[in-house]
Structures are given as C-alpha cells and as structure tokens.
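Working notes for the structural subgroup meeting. M.R. asked for a predicted model of this chain before we commit to crystallization trials. I am recording the input and output together here so anyone reviewing the notebook later can reproduce the run.

Input as submitted:
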Amino acid sequence: FVLAQTGAQWRFETPMSDLADQAAVGQVVKSLLNLNADEIEERTGGDERDDATGQPLSRVDVGAGARSWRFSIMPADAESRLMNVVFTNSARVFSVAASNVPSALVSTVGMLGLRDKTVLALPESSLRRITLKMGKAQADVVERGGPAAAWRAGEVSPGKVDTARLNAVVALLEKLRADRIEKLGATLEEIEAYGLRDPWLSLSADVDAADSVRKTLLVGKEAWFGKRYAMVRGLDILFVLSPETLEILNGHLVEPVQ
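Returned structure, recorded in token form:
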C-alpha cells in the first residue's frame, strides 16, 4: 500500500488510485508521530534483524520532503502485547505497546480502513431513474425528465410513488458510505460466495454524468450484526453496509394500485 499527500489531501497510489479517508489517515499519522517506546535495547549484528517471534508484520517507509525513515514492526513477545520497531541501519530496538501501534501499519484490514468509504456520491440533480429490486420480486422503477421535474412511477411499476421513502433513498445516494471495506480485488468466486451474483437487493441509478450513465449497487449476504456485503457493479471493492443504511434501502418506492 502506498499513501501520498498532495497539498492537504491524502490519496492511495497503490494498489488502487483512490481518495483516502482524510480523518482516518490524519489520526494514523498523529499516532505514529506520538509513538513512544516502553523500552530501548541496543543490539549488535546485521542491519536487518527479525525477532525470534517471527517475520515482521510490516515494513514501513515514511517520507517527508527529502528525508525518509524505514523500519520494520514485529511482535516482541508470543502474546503480541509489545511490538518491536527496528529502523534500518540502526542497532536500537524500540519496544512499544501493541495497543499504541496504528492497526493500519500492521494489518491489511487496518490499511483498508484508510480508504475513503464512499460507495456512491450521486447529486440529486443528476438522477433520472432509480430501479430498486428486492431479490426476485418485481422491481420498483421511478423516473423523472429533469432536475426540476417531479418523480413518477415508471411504466413497469403502476402505482403511487412513496415520496418519503424515495426522498430518504435519494438523500442516501448523495453520500452513501460503507461501514467498512472488506477487501479489494474480489474474484468471481468470492462475489458468488458473498451472495452478490444473486443479490438480496439491487439498486440502479440512471444519471447524467461524464463517467457513467448508470450506477448499480448490489447487496448480498449478511455479514454480522445486521450488516451485509455490497459492491458497485464494475468495481472489485467489497463493502460492508450498516443496518441503518439497509433499513433505508429495504422497502418499496412505489405503492401498488389497490
């Protein structure tokens, strides 16, 4: 993973080119700069030292202007209560409390937590049609002719638009954020395993946008505590959505004709 700051904005450069969660990255940088050692040990030997407890959990390269620092982080004890921070070309080993080491520096899940968690960001003025389908049920379709036009039920969805529910969904689509990111690079097999080939819910938004005319959100199997896996068709990022988000999505946009 490579994160770089341009101006005042942090972005991922590798493995994806994408915006980072600015507040989350800021907290990691602050924690790193404030990291204090509980113990310092002087060692002799080569430049590269791996503890008997195992290989480094990570190797970190931090650059600031023309200066850079390289260090490895590894467990200092079998219970992983302490971490050893070992700088390249230094005989010192800094032992720090594991709870003080930012998770982004020692785990893939922690690093994924630094990616911006925005799933969709569709301005209301760009929306032209919304299609919401629950499993194998008949899809609800609502559409309008322009930004000032009123929403109406589509031809395949006879009935009356549920204005309150539609407004809640439109507001959600303007800034739909995930509870967390599960992984990058989801394979076809994983997409099926997470229930996204035959989704629990799918929502397509037809928009006026330069990069795409349609965005489709797929929501699959339950993750835990009422959360569900989700992804945007065409992207390989696996998200986890919160129960609050699912509550807004779960329902009909059109009240059927009685």
